[in-house]
Amino acid sequence: MGDTDDSPDRRGRLHGRLFHVLGGFSALVALVALWQFGVFGGDPDRDPLGTVDEPDTAWLSASEDGTTAADSVAAASTTVESASESTASETSAPPSDAATSSVAASEPSPSQDDEDEEEAAPSESCSASLTLKDEWEDSIEVTVVVVNTGSAEIGSWEIDLDLDGLDVYNHWNMRELDGGRYGSESYNGRLDPDEDAVAGFQAEVDGDFELPSSVHCEASS
User: Fold this and answer.
1) Full residue range of the structural domain in which residue 175 is found
2) Is residue 188 part of a domain?
3) Looking at residue 115, what is its pLDDT?
4) Which positions ≥6 away from 196 have C-beta within 8 Å?
5) Is residue 157 within a helix (H) or strand (E), and if so which, with residue range?
6) Which of 110, 117, 169, 189 could form a disulfide with 184 if both were Cys (CB 3.0 to 4.6 A apart)?
7) Residue 113 included in any domain
8) Does residue 21 sit within a domain?
9) Distance CA 202, CA 132 (A)
10) How far apart are CA 175 and CA 23, in angstroms?
11) How many domains does the chain have?
């Protein structure tokens, strides 16, 4: 049998070499650790890595700034009010077409003015009432009262006595015209508003004739 390399002496030398390698590796690791400790926390004058320098902000106290809390509140209120006024002025709109139309509609139109003037203008009118004063077998006597019912003075009046069953044969304070109409005389034609003139007539009537309480009256200036 030949000699083998697995002798006790050879194994001892290998173990010794491994021990030296492991010891050197451990020393290297320790040096690296010491270096890292010195960089990140060992030196108090050294800034940690990753720290970003930021500008220092100086906050002034109320006495240093020269303003008080009340001044700050007043300034803020003024700013809010200015903003509100600005917004109000921007949102203010000119009068709408609807408002303009309402103002125009409230003004009377020319036609309305004319109607008002016509209504306010003096009117000329009259009324004629008939009252039975006396009655006979086939004739009657009637009193006629003509009243100015308008708002203006009238210069003359006319009444219509063209009635079925009535035939006037005598009259006073009025003159006969044509077609059964009778008009005022020169002395009783002019009447002021609410003033009246009294006239009368006698007439033959049929047996079944009924005297009306009034007849048509026409006034003129």
Assistant:
1) 126-220
2) yes
3) 65
4) 145, 146, 147, 148
5) strand 156-160
6) 189
7) no
8) no
9) 10
10) 166
11) 1
